[in-house]
Amino acid sequence: MTKFEHYDSPDQVLGFIREKVAFGALIGDAGVSADALGRKVIPAGTPVGGDTSMLDDENAILTVATDTTKDTVQGILEFPVDVTAGTADGTVIDNGYINQFRLPDGVTISKDMEAALHDKSKGGRVTIIGRNK
Q1: Which terminus of the chain, N or C, has fewer Cβ atoms within 10 Å?
Q2: Each residue of 44-101: pLDDT tens digit?
Q3: Is residue 40 assigned to a domain?
Q4: What is the Cα–Cα distance from 104 to 125, expressed in whole angstroms?
């Protein structure tokens, strides 16, 4: 008898894969609440940022960005990041098109955050689109 295993892969949040620029980054657990199983997982599509630029310092630790911290936003998580044990490796989209219809449940990007992600004066190059609902 053949045994089949099921592997889940995260949904793709990108609108266009070809235009993407992403960097590996350290993602911290500050402000992340544990779920019912005690796990702290930051979903794909979540804006992240921090006072230190991930482009200038590969040891910069980014955390979940909110509307109150939108001035430090640096990009969007391409994949979920499990920070249950603390700081973990993640992939941050610095340039590209994010399809709002592909964001996981519970992840929303406000108009203010969208503007901060696309603010060219701060190096922003992430554009939120809504296609193929």
Answers
A1: N
A2: 999 999 999 999 999 999 999 999 999 999 999 999 999 999 999 999 999 999 999 9
A3: yes
A4: 21
Helix runs in 3-62, H state only? none
How many separate domains does the chain show? 1
Rounded distance, CA 16 to CA 10, Å?
A: 16
Assigned domain for 9 exists: no
- Neighbour count for residue 30 (Cβ, 10 Å): 12
Range of the domain at 33: 14-129
Asked, for residue 2, whether it belongs to a domain, the answer is no
Q: The domain that contains 113 carries what CATH number?
A: 2.40.300.10
